[in-house]
Amino acid sequence: MESSLFSKLNEYLEKESKCRELLRECRDFCDSAVRSAAVLVESLHKERDLSSKLQELYESLREVASEFVRLQSNVPLHEYYKYNDLWKSSLSQAVATGCLVYYLDCNQLADLSVLQRILCPKEPTASSVRIELEDYLVGVCNLVSELSRMSVNRVTIGDFEFAVNAAKFSSEVLAGFRLLNFRNDYLRRRFDGMKYDVKKLEEVVYDISIRGLLN
Amino acid sequence: MPIESETSFLKQLSIQSLFEELADEFNQLIDKRERLVKASRDITYQSKKVIYLLHRTSDEDLLAICSKAQLQLENVRQLICRLLLRELSPEDYFKFHPIFTIALQEYTEARLFLSYLSESRAITLDEINAEISQQYESLSENLQEDAFDLFINLISVQDYILGMIDVSGELMRYCINCSSRNEWSKAFHVESFLRQLSAEIKYLASYMSRWNDSLDNKLEAMWTNLQKVENACYQLYIRHMEFHWKEDE
């Protein structure tokens, strides 16, 4: 057995492990940017004037985007998917936040291209960060569950309109999800959970309408 | 009021049509995965058959079996090119890699086993990949430029090393067969080969544990295989001494 065979393999693995280490560091920066955006979102639950916060939220999403841009500059060509498990969860968190901010801003569901513009603003290349279809769908599931929480909290500060709009929006999203053919995986389970979020949203609307709080 | 219902109708349409598009895309993704799973299963099965064939070397002529195995492996390479390479682009190779890595490992295992039996050495990763790219070139007339990088390195370092760990099981079985037939020198050759192999792989494994959960189990299995082989050789030696030292006197 030639030892050159193994030294070559060794060299390759060493290089790969260094690259992974570097990307892990970048990922940690992405993570902390995503977390500070999440903290801001948390403050929205009881904020009386939502539109005043939007500027700040977009700003923090730009922060997230710039960390992802830095991360992608260290991804070797054609090896994006070799490492993307590292930042999968922080990206899907960012997607959920992006969806929420866009919903609050435009009252609409952000599609993939909108999110790509918000989170990965650079011209796409072979190694640039991309939002996978499945991650996007998980992000939308997260959006609906965040909305159900938020609608409860906003009712307690007297914002009934939010609950009504969110319930309508979420039931449309649920109807959209019904068009997809799921496999029996994580996404499927998340979709199964979504109907409970929608139910919650509808109950909130029921509660406020039966008490004549809607006019 | 009419204005509001109108806008809500528009919005309804847009979420609906957005998801109609997504459904198409999603179906395509799932279909592709299914095709890759199927391809992977076919390649694995055919590679396993080659390994079984190679274990029959005791019954028939070694050379005849090896050339038969070589031929069957060429068929496996054709499967790899037709079913796997055609589905992949260099960019999403690693996206789907978890689906077909088992198949590539199994092929590597069969190819390594053959190279051990016919040439008493481990074929290198570059050689294995060169065989596949030759096959690919012979199959397709109009090569795409960007596919070049992919079929040059279809089997990754990870696949190769994991295939190498797996081949220790086949070598162990081969060694036990040899020792039961009293093929002394073959058994001892396997023993020294396997010891060297597992020592080298243990060294490499320090980098690998992070990306593969099944690695620890596999290393454990390799270690047991080595011990089995060492014990078999020990038994062989003891028996030999018992029966032959009197003759030697």
Structure report:
In chain A, helix 6 (133-155) packs antiparallel against helix 7 and helix 6 packs parallel to helix 8. With 215 residues, chain A is mainly α. Chain A has 8 helices and no strands. The termini of chain B are far apart. The longest helix of chain B is centred in the N-terminal third of the chain and has 53 residues, at 2-54. Chain B contains 8 helices and no strands. In chain B, helix 7 (184-208) runs antiparallel to helix 8. Chain B has 2 domains: 1-155, Up-down Bundle (Methane Monooxygenase Hydroxylase, Chain G, domain 1), CATH 1.20.58.190; 157-249, Methane Monooxygenase Hydroxylase, Chain G, domain 1 (Up-down Bundle). Chains A and B meet through helix 1, helix 3, helix 6 and helix 7 of A and helix 1, helix 3, helix 6 and helix 7 of B.
Main β sheet profile of chain A: none
Name of the CATH superfamily of the largest domain in chain B: Translin, domain 1
Low-confidence blocks of residues of chain B: 1-10
Q: How big is the Rg of chain B? A: 25 Å
Helical amount among residues of chain A, as a percent range?
over 70%
- SS-based structural class of chain A? mainly alpha
* Helix proportion of chain B: over 70%
Derived from helix and strand composition plus strand pairing, the structural class of chain B reads: mainly alpha
CATH class annotation of the largest domain in chain B: Mainly Alpha
Q: Quick one: overall form of chain B?
A: elongated
Total helical segments of chain A? 8
Q: What about the largest sheet of chain B? A: none
CATH architectural arrangement of the largest domain in chain B: Up-down Bundle
Extract low-pLDDT stretches of chain A.
none
- Our measurement of the CA-to-CA distance between the termini of chain A, rounded to an integer number of angstroms, reads 83 Å
Please tally the β strands of chain B and state the result.
0
Radius of gyration of chain A, taken over Cα atoms and rounded to an integer in Å: 21 Å
Largest interface: A-B, 37 and 41 residues
Please trace the helix and strand order of chain A, writing H or E for each element. Answer: HHHHHHHH
The separation of the N and C termini of chain B measures 114 Å
